Structures are given as C-alpha cells and as structure tokens.
Amino acid sequence: MVVLANCLLPTPGLDRLISLTDRASIKRAVVTNAPEDNAIFMLKTLRLTDTFPTVIMAKDAPPGKPDPAPYELALSRLMVKSKRAIAFEDSAAGIRAANDAGIYTIGITSSHPAEDLLTAGASMTIEDFNDEQLWELLGSKTKAVG
C-alpha cells in the first residue's frame, strides 16, 4: 500500500481547476462507486479531503452508478440545480449516471478511449484538466454565472 500511495498523483490540471472553483465560489463534490476505504484513502493521499467536503459513495445512494441516484444526492447536498453542474467522469457507467441526473458531462480519457465515453453520452472528452477546450468551456460558463 505504501508503494501505491507514493505513485498516486492527481490528474494533471486538477490544482488549476480547484483554483478556478475557489475563485468563482463554485461548490465541489466527489461522486464515486469506489468502496469507502478506497475513496477515503485516495482523498487523504492526494490531500483532497478538505477540498471535497461532499463525498457521495455508492453505499450512500444505492444502487450506485449507472443509476443517477448518487448524482441526484450530490446535487441535493450541494443545493445546486443539475443544469448548473458539470460532471467529470472516466467510465460509461458514470457518464450515464450524470447524464440521467441532467448534468453536463465531460469524459476523462484516463481509462477508456474517447469514442467509448462519447458513445456513453459524454458531451466532450478531455485527456486531463489542462485541456484548452475545457478551459474555453469553463470560461464561458463562469462568465454566465458571474
């Protein structure tokens, strides 16, 4: 487990995305199908526990993804309407869950090819959070909010 902790790194550009959401007072949540121990371990190892105070796991909203219940619970806890949310997902099940909750969904190609994520319903795909297409989209969305 120590070896895994030493190799675990956040997706490139995550710090930039977190800074933007801080500046714009945008709420954040983690919605995961990972077992609780794994999710907590990853958040602690990446020092993101305080960054994501709202964490929704499959056990919190059964049956979990691809059902939209986990995303619906996150929206409820954040007190955010689905049309004002963006989900970042790396799996077809996650994309279907977010889409079915009415959330604009971006696929991250860390574990599946872009074609698979787009077929599942992603509105666009990115390799990581440094993608310029993402930042153009976020710029337009944060201007609309502000």
Would you give an account of this structure?
The protein is an alpha/beta fold. It has a single domain, classed as Rossmann fold, CATH 3.40.50.1000. 45% of the residues lie in helices and 14% in strands. It contains seven helices and five strands, in the order H-H-E-H-E-H-E-H-E-H-E-H. A three-stranded parallel beta sheet has the order 3-4-5. A two-stranded parallel ribbon has the order 1-2. Strand 1, helix 3 and strand 2 form a beta-alpha-beta unit. It is globular and about 35 Å long. The mean pLDDT is 92.
Q: What characteristics describe this protein?
A:
single chain, about 150 residues, alpha/beta, Rossmann fold, three-stranded parallel β-sheet, 5 strands, about 45% helix, globular
Compact overview of the structure:
The protein has 146 residues and is an alpha/beta fold. It has helices spanning 2-7, 14-23, 36-45, 69-78, 92-100, 114-120, 132-145, and strands at residues 29-32, 54-57, 86-89, 104-108, 124-126.
Topology:
Layout (H helix, E strand, L loop, with lengths): L1 H6 L6 H10 L5 E4 L3 H10 L8 E4 L11 H10 L7 E4 L2 H9 L3 E5 L5 H7 L3 E3 L5 H14 L1
Parallel strand pairs: 1-2, 3-4, 4-5
Helix pairs in contact: 5-6
Question: CATH homologous superfamily, by name?
Answer: HAD superfamily/HAD-like
- In the CATH hierarchy, what is the class? Alpha Beta
Number of domains: 1
User: What general form does the structure show?
Assistant: globular
